[in-house]
Amino acid sequence: MVSIHFQLLSVLCISSFVSAAPGLNPQQLRQQQQQGQQATACTNPTQRKAWHKLTNVEKKDYVDATLCLMSKPATMGWEGATTRWDELTYVHKVNTNIVHNVGGLLPWHRYYVYLHEQMLKTECGYKGAQPYWETVLDVGNILGSSVLDPVTGFGGNGTGADLCVSDGPLANITLHMGPKYTNTDHCLKRNVNELVAQQNCSQSNIDTLFTYSKFSDVYDLFGNTIHTGGHSSIGGTGGTMTDLINSPGDPIFFLHHANLDRIWRKWQQVDPASRLYDIAGRNVPTADYISSRGLLEVSESQSLYFGDNGTETTLNHNMDMIEMLPNRTIRDVMDIKGDFLCYEYL
User: Fold this and answer.
1) Which stretches make up the Tyrosinase copper-binding domain (predicted)?
2) In this structure, what CATH number is given to the domain that contains residue 143?
3) Is the dihedral of CA 233, 239, 245, 248 positive or negative?
4) Which domain holds residue 258?
């Protein structure tokens, strides 16, 4: 099946895909996908921890691996991508108009965070696991969050008219993807918004999610409360995290989405017999969502690629990682302790 990536090339003015430079494309995973084989049973799951519970050494290892990806040269031949970090962001950029405001928001980002974790490990020698930012603990004092610590975290808020992060390990980082569908050199921008964190990331909002028993009732709540809140609490107005298309440019994106994934996992575990493989929701964003966020219209070829045979998201829904990892269906990632993903949250 043709990747969505190819369907968007002419619209995004991106150069032809360079198949000879596959980047992160583990041969074993590809063979398992093509042959329909199962991976080895998950007997030793990777253990993901909260950022604030990592030791300073563990934090440094993660930050160093992130800086490694940000400095490692691009390999895919995609226009505008200078580093492997740019290419990781590009995967999100190409998929933005089909993985937000839909039932596939959580599973696609679950796989995307997994891709990020594998890149840290296979390309930068990272030995740990993907940490998560337990945002609810910082509501009321986002600026004091340990993820924004300039010494042991990812630096603090943006400063000046351009909102550039001016301290910590990312002070001199240049991003190349964005804003929106453009490719320009710019700094990492943050504009912390404490109020939006209080409104969207509170424990009461999380508790509300757990009052619903069906995925069809919660996927919009996930997307419009703690998901949006986490992005906006860091990015505010004009920050990298609130550029929907290129938000992975800020490494906090992956800690935030790991936390969202953790909460979804907890929701699944309340009643695994009925929730572990419960998926639903529209598979194309609403017209208002597309228009208000300046996203590309969803093409017919993209819709056909979904594999849902309709407008509802199903377990057969295809998720595109444009050759950075083999494409998978939502079914493959529903259970994080299944044969494929094999990780857990502590």
Assistant:
1) 250-261
2) 1.10.1280.10
3) negative
4) 4-345
Residue holding tokens 């709540």? 221
From the list 341, 342, 315, the residue with the least C-alpha distance to 330 is: 315
CA distance 205 to 157: 25
Tell me the C-alpha distance between 262 and 247, whole Å.
20
Nearest residue to 264 via CA among 219, 318, 319, 202? 219
pTM of this structure: 0.91
Residue labelled with tokens 């042959």: 35
What are the tens digits of pLDDT across the range 51-72? 999 999 999 999 999 999 999 9
User: Cα–Cα distance between 104 and 251 in angstroms, integer?
Assistant: 22
Q: How far apart are CA 258 and CA 128, in angstroms?
A: 14
Average pLDDT of every residue of the chain: 91
Domains in the chain, number: 1
Tell me the C-alpha to C-alpha distance, in Å, between residue 173 and each of 28, 70, 75, 79, 155. 34, 8, 19, 19, 11
70 and 173 Cβ atoms separated by less than 8 Å: yes
pLDDT of residue 13: 39
- Residue numbers of the chain with a pLDDT score lower than 70: 1-40
- CA nearest neighbour of 224 among 199, 207, 249: 199
| Maximum pairwise Cα distance, the chain | 54
Q: Pick from 126, 123, 99: which is nearest to 22 by CA? A: 123
Sign, Cα dihedral of 82, 86, 92, 96:
negative
pLDDT tens track for 208-249:
999 999 999 999 999 999 999 999 999 999 999 999 999 999
Retrieve residue 17's tokens: 């895909």
Cβ within 8 Å of residue 287, ≥6 positions away = none
